[in-house]
Amino acid sequence: MRQQSKLNRVMPWLKVGVFLLALLPFIKLILGFYQDDLGANPIEKITHTTGFWTLSFLLITLTATPLRLITHWSWPIRLRRMLGLFAFFYACLHFLTYLILDQFFDAAAIIEDISKRPYITLGFTAFVLLTPLAISSNDTITRKIGSKNWRRLHSLIYPIAIVGVIHFAWLVKKDLSTPLMFAGLLSTLLLIRLFYRR
Amino acid sequence: EKLTASASSAYGLTDELTPLKDITRYNNFYEFGTDKESPAKRASSLITRPWTISVEGEVEKPQTFDIDQLLKLAPIEERIYRLRCVEAWSMVVPWLGYPLAELIKRVQPTSAAHYVEFISLHDPEQMPGQRSPVLQWPYKEGLRIDEAMHPLTLLTFGLYGELLPKQNGAPVRMVIPWKYGFKSAKSIVKIRFVEQQPVSSWMQAGPNEYGFYANVNPAVDHPRWSQAKERRIGDFLKRPTLPFNGYADQVASLYNGMDLTKDF
Questions:
Q1: How far apart are CA B182 and CA B159, in angstroms?
Q2: What is the C-alpha R_g of chain B?
Q3: What confidence score (pLDDT) does residue B14 get?
Q4: Domain boundaries, chain B
Q5: Least C-beta-crowded within 10 Å: which of A54, B3, B170, B263?
Q6: What is Dmax (Cα atoms) for chain B?
Q7: Domain B20-213 class, CATH top level
Q8: B140/B199 Cα distance (integer angstroms)
Q9: Edge-to-edge order in the sheet of strand B52-57
Q10: CB-nearest partner of A41 from B89, B206, B226
Q11: Contact indicator for B101, B153 with CB cutoff of 8 Å
């Protein structure tokens, strides 16, 4: 009980800290843009960075449950919503970078990309699927749809993360080391869940 | 170190030059890592003097050239070429070199020399990226003999009035401006004249994605991305990619009668 009230006191500070940390990659991009520090191909750099952090936050979000299963800590779960919303935040930036900076609203090229190029199809699918999860994360909607439906809806995070990793692996020219690292981490997180479910 | 052109060139270009800073900090040179920034950071470990190139195979006069000997073999020209990467970005680079044909003439290929193979340095001590099996080392590329003899095909020693920076393929590299950048082998130590079409490192890595010819072609997409447009480094909007990277008048006839969707 004392533990619980101590956690309640620390939690708001922890949330502010994690919020600021999670914003760092975004701030670094903005600073890099103004200081001309994004290299010779800034659009490519922004695309890769926002994509990297989308996947990273999806995986960090998926770490909350395994962490509780192993350690019985409850604080990771209380950060989960914010972390998931950061995944969506970086996914939005990633998508907008593609739409505006990369393609500059070239509808024909975008439609061709989404219909013809599997890695773009997958990335776009993951982004579309992630949207209802972000919308239904606020308390009012969560209450309205009921916790059972909420949980069912939010289990979409698993296919989203898997599709996201495949999206990454499919677009690299040759060096698969980073996508494989994501794939390894994701498998580990999912296996821990399976192990504790039995 | 300075390198000045001693001959004028018929191959000028009105495109705006890509700044030296971008040419030297954004490189695909997997021998030093697979991201674009690694070569500029890590290529200092490459030792470019002394350096020799062995020219061998189906030639009457096989020989080994020292790099300083090679630099004096023919008059150096400055050639401003478009460079189009298979990843759909492009640059405009003022290269320094002379036609590869000048070298080829001196070694006298036999009638069996149908292809030319370029082999880059293989030394993981100097090229730490070779510790990763991301490609089969040494890096290998190849041209058909008529492509190799074409006056646009440049044996290249410098850019922007200087000897090649290490991250750009010092001390000697190929530049074949109508083909995707990966065809232009860097840090070459061996040129071999052969009868059979050689297998390049990229063909080994992805035979359905990287063909032997690799001519810049907006009509033939990479299996995973479009080649219709490119982003010129420094530009915001993409521009349409030109057939043969804008050199169709000079080189399209080399491929008469070929199906370029099959021979991509």
A1: 18
A2: 17
A3: 85
A4: 20-213
A5: B263
A6: 51
A7: alpha beta
A8: 8
A9: B63-66, B52-57, B188-194, B115-120, B140-144
A10: B89
A11: yes
Q: How far is B224 from chain A (nearest CA, A)?
A: 6
Alpha carbons A44 and A51: distance in angstroms, whole number? 11
The count of structural domains within chain A is 1
Q: Which residue of B has its CA nearest to A41?
A: B233
Q: Does A129 lie at the interface with B, CB-CB under 8 angstroms?
A: no
Q: What is the ipTM of this complex?
A: 0.88
Closest-CA residue in chain A for B133?
A175
pLDDT in tens, A63-82: 999 999 999 998 999 999 99
Residue at A153: amino acid letter: L
Instruction: Pick the residue from chain A with its C-alpha nearest to B37.
Output: A39
How confident is residue A1, by pLDDT bands cut at 50, 70 and 90? low
pLDDT tens sequence across A117-137? 999 999 999 999 999 999 999
Domain limits at A14? 2-197
A81 three-state secondary structure? helix
Q: Does the pLDDT of residue B10 top 80, yes or no? A: no
Tell me the Ramachandran region of residue B55: left when phi exceeds 0, alpha when psi lies from -120 to 50, beta otherwise: beta
- What's the sign of the alpha-carbon dihedral B258, B262, B263, B264? positive
Q: How confident is the model at residue B13 (pLDDT cuts 50, 70, 90)?
A: confident
